Amino acid sequence: MEDEYYFSPEKGNVAFASAIDCWGFTVESYADLFSAKLGVDKELLRQHLWGDFYYSPAQKKFIKFEGESTKKAAFVMFALEPLWKRYEKVASLKSGQDTTAYKEARSKVKELLSKQMPLDNCILSLIAKHLPSPTTAQKYRLTTLCPSLYTPEAMKSDVLCKIREAIEKVDNSEDAPVVVYVSKMMAIERSQISDLKDEFLSELDSSDAGTVERLALIAFSRVFSGHLQKGKKVYVIGPKHNKEKGIVDIHEVTMNHLYTFMGMHLEVSDSLCAGCVGGLGGLDSYLYKTGTISTIQDCPSFVALNNKSKPIVKVALEASRLSDMEKLSEGLKKLNKADPSVEVYLTDSGEYILCTCGEVHLQKCVKDLKDEYAKVEFKVSEPLVNFRETILLRYMKPEKALAKVHSANQEENGEKLKPKEEEDKKTPEKIDIYLDKLMHLKDLKQNGLAIDITPNGRCKMHIRAIGLDFEVTKWMETKRSLVKKIAAKQVDPDQLEQFVKEFKAVLQSHSTPKKIINLILGYLVSFGPKRNGPNMVISPYLQPTQGLLYVPTEVAPSIGKYHRTLPEELFKYISFEELHKAIISGFELATSIMFSLSPYRQLPTLRRAHGRSLFHY
Is 0.85 topped by the overall pTM? Predict the structure, then answer.
């Protein structure tokens, strides 16, 4: 049984190839191609081309090596030496100055060998002979790919039994449930996608080439059952979806872009049947990296693929201009989707961290980020590789050692956090005096106001920080998941209305001034930190209908009186959207830094104040 999993040329499961020159062969294909030319029996050449054998021209047979010998191995004699003779001229010209002659010789070798031993035929024959067909493979792979279909509860469900049987049989009939697994997102040039090529070329002609999106994210997919057709409505199920735990990650979409892979190009397809591999377009808004697609909403999500190449090199990224932070953030999200080996996250101090598999991989990611995804200038810190090693004493139990390692990891980036009870005991109550003053409307004109001028001297910023009651913060902490959806504008209108009603009631119950409530409900533009915290920023320069919490039935009719307009002269230098994004990026950075400083550096004022702030500009 174990012998099946070993690679050995005589078994035919190893190919000798050159990707750059597009040729390849196996022992079997080489014997079939050159046995007549070499004057050797085809079957004998297959059996003895690889191994401890040499060929005796006098006896016209293969002889096994015994002890030390000066004879050339059969593989060297029949395969490597003929190949090397083809490359001898190329190698001699490489070190010379005549680059034209070198290129001509190289192209001739490539043309000759790629015709004699085409790489695509070689690899395709290996796949056909040694990889199991979908009808064989899906039966034993399904238990690993989707263990949720084999639980006792799933065995009793008629719907899940139907899905399981369809996948095991690779049912591609019209009535079979469609089940598709997306293993990764691929960034492909739009010029290589047939139905996007014309649109891409027209955009290039009508606008600046630097602003045109050159890449499109295509979902690399495998159809496990059913018949996926263009225009069909399906459910996109994210990898985090778990009905038992109450985690919902489902989106209903219409499949308008189906593709078959044809080398480097994608051809439009009207349908993909079970057993096929294909590309799906228009899913980058719904999928992170992997996901499941089905016509049945209750279809369980396939498990995410385990990537063996874990990223170990990480760098911090910072936009050269603060106003470009939003573009850098969006570019990192696209890179994270397009490259399955990349990890991107935001630290508590507001830094964007990019993790890659090595320095070469890092260089490629930085280049792609700058040229394709973000298209802004940014600074990259020195690469930092984390190495964690543990030395165990002989008498130390593994459980105790792991506890020490876990404790050390917690303290790696700062002091160990103290229990909240101890923290509160050491914090004097008088630190709340300043914040309590800010709760009164009469103090808004005196306290919490910050004024600064931008580096180019063209804009003066007035920002006021207003304290909110701590009970309001505690209530918002319980709604973090919903706040995150609201910030991303992915919440249902009914959910938003219910949240606004509850939030308004909480604010009123803690004596929040009416003006503050109206500003929050009409002009809220962002939460922080990380777009889901209890800090908020409001801008009266927006229209009330653009606020994140705008619900017509809950906002006062006089909300429009708080609206302000910016001078037209300002828009000569920056658009309103750019200014708006720059302020939100600065707010995000400031609240993240406050969050990271307060617990680690034991600043009680910051720690107690954090989470109660409303920023108004």
Answer: no
Domain total of the chain = 4
- Whether 339 maps to a domain, the answer reads yes
Domain annotation covers residue 391: no
Asked if pLDDT for residue 414 goes beyond 60, the answer is no
Looking from the CA of 162 toward its CB, the CA atoms found within 13 Å total 13
* Tens-digit pLDDT profile for residues 7-52: 888 888 899 999 888 999 998 888 888 888 777 888 888 888 888 8
Q: 126 and 138, same structural domain? A: no
State how far the Cα of 231 lies from the Cα of 432, in Å rounded to an integer. Answer: 59
The token pair that represents 45 in the structure block: 């050449």
Domain co-membership, 472 together with 578: yes
CATH number reported for the structural domain that contains residue 59 in this entry: 3.90.1430
C-alpha 126/C-alpha 170 separation (Å) is 22
How many whole angstroms from its chain centre is CA 374?
15
The residue segments making up the domain with residue 115 are: 2-130
Q: Enter the DSSP assignment of 588.
A: H
Q: Which residue has the tokens 């059969």?
A: 74
Give the domain CATH number at 317. Answer: 3.30.70.870
Beta bridge partners of 581: none
* Sequence-distant (≥ 6) Cβ neighbours of residue 18 within 8 angstroms: 24, 113, 119
Distance CA 352, CA 336 (A): 12
Is-contact 275 226, C-beta < 8 A? no
Strands 535-538 and 613-616: parallel
Would you state the pLDDT for residue 603? 30
- Find where tokens 């279909």 sit: 149
Is 405 domain-assigned?
Answer: no
